[in-house]
Amino acid sequence: MEIFERDILSKLPNSYTNKKSLIHDIAVVHAELLFIHPFREGNGRTARILANLMSRKHGYAPLLFDKVGKKEFEFYVSAIQKAADKEYHQMEQFIELIFPG
C-alpha cells in the first residue's frame, strides 16, 4: 500500500484537462489496487468504489459496472492479466467502455 500511495496515488493530478487522461489513471489505479489485494474480502468492491470516486471527483457520473456481462467480464479479466505486466491499454479500453456518457 505504501508503494501504491507513493508511486501511483500521490502522482495523480488534482484535475484533468481531458477525459482520456482520467480514464487512463482510473485504469491504472483500479488494476494496481487489485494486485495489492489488501483485504480478505471486498477487494473488487473497493476497487470499483475508488474508480467511481475518481470519476465523481472530476464531475462525471459513476462508472457503469452494471453494463458488464459475461463477454465484458472476460475482457476485464484479460485486461487485469495484461496490467500485471504494466500494460494498461486493455484496462483503459474496459474503463472507456463503462465510462458514463
Helix percent band: 55-70%
Report the CATH architecture: Orthogonal Bundle
Anisotropy-based shape: globular
Let me know the average pLDDT: 95
**Proportion of strand residues:** under 5%
CATH topology (fold) name: Fic-like fold
Uncertain stretches: none
Give the number of domains. Answer: 1
CATH superfamily: Fido-like domain
Secondary structure category? mainly alpha
Largest sheet: none
Distance between the amino and carboxyl termini: 32 Å
CATH class: Mainly Alpha
The radius of gyration over CA amounts to: 13 Å
Give helix and strand order, one letter per element, not per position. HHHHH
With helices defined by DSSP (H or I, 4 residues minimum), what is the helix count?
A: 5
List the helices and strands and how they pair.
Blueprint: H1 2-7, H2 19-36, H3 43-57, H4 70-83, H5 89-98
